[in-house]
Amino acid sequence: MNNESFGQDQSPKFSRRDFLRTSVVVAGDSLLASVAANGDTGKASPMKIGCGTVTFRKQSLEEAMQRIARAGYEYVEPQATGPWCPHVDPWKDDPEKFKRRVKEFGFKGVTALWAQHGAIMPDPKSIEGITQSIRWAGEAGIPVVNAGDGKKPKDMSDDDALKLMRERLAQILEVAERSRVYLAIEPHGTFSLTADGLKKIMALSASKWLGINYDTANVRRATYVETVAGGYSWTPFGKRQDEVATLAAVVDRVVHVHVKDVVGAKCVALGKGDVNLKGCLEVLRRHGYSGVLSLETEGEFSADEGQKLIEESRTWLVKAVA
Predict the structure, then answer these.
(1) CB 3.0–4.6 Å: which of 87, 172, 190, 288 could bond 78 by disulfide?
(2) CA distances from 116 to 200, 286, 318 (A)
């Protein structure tokens, strides 16, 4: 992978609404200002539309941003998940240089960053990787860092797994508070693929900086979540529900959204798959969510195929949120 200049591996207390207003200043635009009114439909602004660079994970970050800008997206979301998507290295990359390149491409903002070593339970380097990603995100003007609980170790009980997560989250969230960056848990593990499990995770900390990055497709295909080595299955914690019911149960904790559509395990353009995207958007709309909808795929296709997918998806999404 050609990393260009962006590698490949790797405060006072105030309210959630205050943070979301402040993050606008840090990021240099009004990216999440309207999310400060999340839950108040009388004040909600239209949802923003972004695109993840992971669609072009086999290309450089430079090419990924070029293609995303060409497709008309105003917001972009990189990952620090090398070797899967090695577009950011939070240990080596210059956040100021990154910010300049984002501005040069004409983007209004960067919505989130998927953390290095982002599987909290199974990865022994999760604290180190996620905290460094949060520090870097804060310096780069990125208001959200995404991570997942990951697959529970086979010989570990649910209680022990939650205890381990509580301990690791405590250390990670100390850094999140200092950096004024949200840690957003994505449905990407044993607990997070159900509403029951997401509520368990949210209850592990009283920190204002803990939220959810809701992924529409991961919940639907809850027994399959991608890894570098390929797909694998597990038994999710709690009651299985569809993607709409799950979102409705936890929407008050959502700070970022991955819009993804699939047929089986394969990503397709929005509106062409099995995911009830319109139902999810309606839940968000009713709640007054006015944050970001960031298109995500697994980047399992050629650059030109990815270009067609993100262009078709943007057309669908613009109409869906109008």
Answers:
(1) 87
(2) 23, 33, 31
